Every structure is written in C-alpha cells, then in structure tokens.
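Notes from the pairing session

We agreed to fold both candidates in a single pass and log them together. This is the raw record for the first candidate, unedited. Please don't reformat it; downstream parsing expects exactly this layout.

Candidate A
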Amino acid sequence: MSEEINSVQPKVEENKMGIMPIPKLLFNMAIPMVISMLMQALYNIVDSAFVGMYSSHALEAVSIAFPIQSLMIAVATGTGVGINALLSRHLGEKRFEAANITANTGIFLAICSYIVFAILGLTIVKPFFRMQSDLQEVVVFGEQYLTVITVCGFGIFGEIVNERLLQATGRTFYSMITQGTGAILNIILDPILIFGYFGVPALGVRGAAIATVIGQCVACILAIIFNITVNKEITLKISQIIKPKAREILLIYEVGIPSIIMASITSFLTIGMNLILKKFSEDAITVYGVYYKLNSFIFMPVFGLNNGMVPILAYNYGAQKKERIHKTIRLGMACAVAYMLVGLAVFELIPDKLLMIFSANDNVMAIGTVALRIIALSFLFAGIGIVSSTVFQAIGNPLHSLLISVLRQLVIILPVAYLLSFTGNVDAVWWSYPIAEIISFILSVIFLRITLKKL
C-alpha cells in the first residue's frame, strides 16, 4: 500500500480566503456549516423526542448522559479548533509541508482521544448515573445508552477532525454533506431501532445510542473520502499519522486545550446544575436536559458561523491582512446577534409548544415554560460573546476565551444557581444564566478591544 493517501501536490496560488470579498467569503464558508449545524440540532431534538415517547425515565437518562457526550464533543472540537487555526495559518504563510504535518497529526490525536473515552465508558458509566439519580430505571437506561456512545465513539472523533481539515482549506460544502448525512441517518434509524420497525428488534434507549454511533461513523467515512479525493491542499501520509511530531502536537493544543477546557466546562456545569436541581425534583433535571436540546437549535448555527470564521481569520492573520480580519469580525457579530434575537423571540412566545415535542408531563411543562423564558434572556448578550471567543482562538489569544468561559460557567452560574436554590423556588435558579451572560458580555467586549489594538 502506498504511504501517500493523497499524492496530489498543493497549489501555490492564493487561497480564496485571502482574496474573495469578505461578505461573499463568509457566507460561502459559513452557510454550509450553519445548515449542517441546524441538521445536527434537529437530530438532537428528534432523538430526544423519540426517547421521550419511549419513556420519561429514558428521557431523563439521556439528559443526564449529556455531560459525557458533551465532553467527548468538547475534546474532538477543541482539538479540531487547534488543527483548523494552525493549518489555516500555515496555508496563509504558504508553508504547505507544515500544513500537511498538522493535518496528519490531527488524525493521530483523534485516535488517541477515542481510546481514552472508550476506557472511561467501560469503567465510570454506572457510578456516574448513580451519583446523578436515585431511580434505578434511570440508572439502567443511562448505562445502556452511554456505554454504547463511549465504547463505539470512534466515529465522532474521526468525523469532527476530518471535517476540520475540510473547513481549514475552505471546503465547507463537503463538511456540510458529511454532517448532514450523519444527522439524517440518525433521524431515520432512531424510531426503527428504538421501537423495532421493519423486523428489527425494539432496542429502546440502546437503539437510540446505536443510531447515533452509526450516523457518526458514516459521516466519518465520508469526511475521510472527501479529504482523500477533493482536498488538494493537504497530503495525508500514514507515516506522519503513526509518527506525529511532538512540536506539532504542542502547537495544536496551544489553541486546542483552552478550547477543550471551555467546551468541557459545560459538562461540569451540567453535572453541577443537575445536583442542584435534584433537591427540587427529577422533573427539574429533565427540564434542564430538554433546555440543552432546544438551545442547540439556537446556538449550533452560531457555532457553524464561527466555524466558517476561524479559517478566514487565521488565514488572514497569517497573511497579515488586518482589514479583512476586522470586516469578518463585524459581519460575523451582526449575523450572530440577529439570529440570537430570533431565538429569544421563539423561546419567549411558544415555550409550551417546544416542550410538547418531548412528550412532557404536566410538571415538566409547568417548570419548563418558566425556565425557557428566563434563560432565553441570556440570548440577548450571547452572540457577541460567542463571536469574540472565536476571534481569540483564531488569532492566538485562546486564554481570553478560556478565562471568560471559566468565569461565566463555574465562577458565576453555578455559585449563583446554588445560592438562588436556597429560596426554595426552582424558578429562581434559572436567573443564574442571564446574570452570567451579562458579565461575560462585558468581559468579551473589553478583551476584544485589547486584542484588536494589539493586532
């Protein structure tokens, strides 16, 4: 077998990220990512909707499993952010061999990440659920679901890293195809495997997990094929995958580790909030899990916009094109804020309709309607913060993003939620989100001004 998977040499002419007008470029890069993120968000909602139809205890189990799934995605996407930013910067500097090394090192890191989570899946799943719930049904459902997700989770790491290679070279259309295909396949397989249609045995919650990993694996295979066949600016080599350079790993994680920590904080926040909400009721925990499924439909398209911005910012940072960086930031912020305002309107006007998607019982409806309306107030400020974090990561100031994320989720939300829980009213706990978002918005603006002055 040839050592080179893709032997086509990279072209030296200017990449579109350095010459295409910014409005056209950003929409060209971001729209496929936004569409794919919307598909992924739709899958998250449909998946939980089918699980909710199967059993309310199963829905709670999937909600409790969210932090571990989120941690897996955090490691994959954080590593991907580091790969994306470094690879795009190398391309902007016309250092093509360095870009190749970054790409191959990224695949090695994806393999290592999967092995770590497979081991965790075989050891910590049952103790994790016993810590979060006193109901045996929830623990059993949770163990069935999360064991499959972790032990068979190689698809999510391979998918995300290979998609970042496509994004870094401007091929976001192909990234959209991979994510969209995986999400649609998940949606199709969910009811078949959960309820047992077309002669397939009813697998319940375990079926939902199997549908998820099948979708991830198919998306991973597609992304690898696209990198081999159409991604002409990188050359994948088996020798570089199995013998990565330590320096390249350090450079990737210089940006990637703060991104991983930022995304991982959500997992710890969710665990902490579940423990706080546990003293009110199991239904409050379910509401919190449902909120995170719903908010993915609001936040994930903005993250898609960010994924489109990262290579543009990093490339033009490497090419020293300051004005293009400023234009990208301004347009990105305008789009993010506009979309978050749409999300705010939906959560305020029809929270009951959103909850009905998950076959919510009366108590979940009562708690959730208030919760969605209060938490949604944080959307007013979140758009600026999300785009600012992307800027920090793309042009080499990831510690600013990390600091804001730690302050927002661990230093503000959890302590404030804990203090408000002493009111004895679960509705008060939800106010921790708008409070934290206002403070992080102020810090984001300050750090962004500092970063752009140094640019």
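Candidate B (folded immediately after A)
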Amino acid sequence: MQQQAASQTKLLQSALTTIRRKGYAATTVETICDAAGVTKGSFFHHFRSKEDLVLQAVEFWNRFTDDVFAKADFAKAPDPRDRVLGYVEFRLAILDREVSDFTCLLGTLVQETYQSHPAVRAACDNGMSGHIARLTADITAAKAIYAPCASWTPESVGYFIQAVLQGSFIFAKAKLDAQVARDNLVHLRAYLTTILPNDNQGGTETCRIQ
C-alpha cells in the first residue's frame, strides 16, 4: 500500500514539474512515467488517462501551495496589511528560482486547455479562485483598518494581484528571465501601500468627506 501511494505521488510530482516546463500538450504519459521512474502499467493503475492525472495533479498542487503559503512567515503577521504586503514580498523572493519553478501550474494549464478541456479549465478556475478567496480575507481585514471607506472591493484587489502575477509569469516565460516580473511586483507593492495607507486617520477623513 505504501509503495502504491509512493508511486502515485511520484507521478503527480512528475506531472507538476513536466507541465510547468513543457506545457500540457507537450507532456505525455510516457514523459511523466520516465520522469517519475515508473512504468505505464503503474500509471494506469492510478489514473484512467492523462486528463485524470492532470485533474488530480491540480488538487495536489492546490494542497501543496496552500501549505506553503500557510507556513510562510508573512502568514503569521498579526496585522492583515503586513500579511497582504508580505504575500507580495514572498512572491518576489521566489523569483530567484528557475522560471518553471516559480510560475503557476494552474495558469500554465488554463492557457492551453480553456477551450479544449473544460474539466481542466474548471479545476484551474476553482483552484485560482480559491487562492484569491484566501488572499481576499486578509485584504478585507486590512481594508477595515486602513481604508474603511474606500470604494474598491477586496475581491477586486485579490483578482488584480493575481492578474499581475499571472501576467508576470507569461513575460518571464517569454523572456526566460524574471526581471519584468520582479519590476511588476515592486509596482504592485507600491500600489497596495497607496490603497492601504498606513495611517488610520486617512481612512477616517475620507469617510467624513463622503
């Protein structure tokens, strides 16, 4: 039983690595098996098809990334504004890795499959939207303290943050370099400090004017 579980995990990890490097179409069952060091017979013992593997890989990715962000130092900050800005700093820090190691599995998948594989598209949407929802919780708490009367919604800011990230990942792949992504996140951090000013009086005065 443990050996079967280990084999399944190897295949899932292989799928994550290979898809992020090569994309969905270029990733075959054979390449996944070769990278995992398992046979095709083992593959089909665990998964019905390549798409079945990918759907389970998305769930595996979501659990993995949820754990990474939950255990990061920024997530322990008592101030929600610090958690929001810390999230961006964390994303900046991991840009020092290889491009395929800091880009998003879900973003990579959905760009290729949004029309051809509706189940994969839906799984990616659920995963990305779930991540945004958790980020939005911190933005909501920060807004209540630092910008209580601002007209923007926390959800819209959550989607904006992810749009900057996903767009930055595309440019990093196009240029095989993280500098554009790094610059974008610096601009994002500056923007967040303007909509969440570290001055409670600013929010109160805005309420009075309105």
